[in-house]
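Reviewers of the previous submission asked for a worked example of the structure-prediction workflow described in the proposal, so we include one complete record here. The input consisted solely of the amino acid sequence. No template or homolog information was supplied to the procedure at any stage.
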Amino acid sequence: MTNLLPLEEKRELFLKNKERLAIIMGITSVVSLVCLILILLSINYYILAEAVFQKNILEQAEKSYKTPVFLDLKNSIQRYNNTLTKLNYFYREEIYFSEILKIISNIDRKDSIYLTDLSLNRIKQEGEENGIKKIKVIATGFSGSREDLLSFKKNIEENKDIKNPYFSPESWTNPQNVKFYLTFEIYNEYQD
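From that input alone, the workflow returned the following structure tokens.
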């Protein structure tokens, strides 16, 4: 099919077609944009309505938790939690004196050796979560002779529960009627 229209009319028709196409595209874009805005507005109103609903539920729940009975229960639970925390700390810090005294009393010593003073101190150390407490024992005493004290020292060093025994140098100066000063450590196991 041949187009017999003059060139200027062909251009006008072409421009009109482009103009119609631009108008159609513009209208389509505007309609799409309006639909998108309406959808977003409906979502916004839905979310606002849900927020108001949830806020009302929260206010009702808060009112039910502010009753005197509930507040008394909450306070008593907090007191018990504080007490249990303090008890847990107390038992973790506790030194079992009976176990340590049993270890010390089981050390074989001659009749001429007497302990005159005994002090137990817990040594704070990192890594106590492995279940071991380190106890430092400081003992002073009296021995009838240096040989008896040497035998006592040997028995202490052979005891597997006692670590790092140390006798002061003054403990070895007198051959008879020896006053000695002794320190050692005991690792006391505890359980959580």
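The helical segments are 7-65, 68-93, 97-105, 146-158. We consider this example representative of the routine output the project will generate in years two and three.
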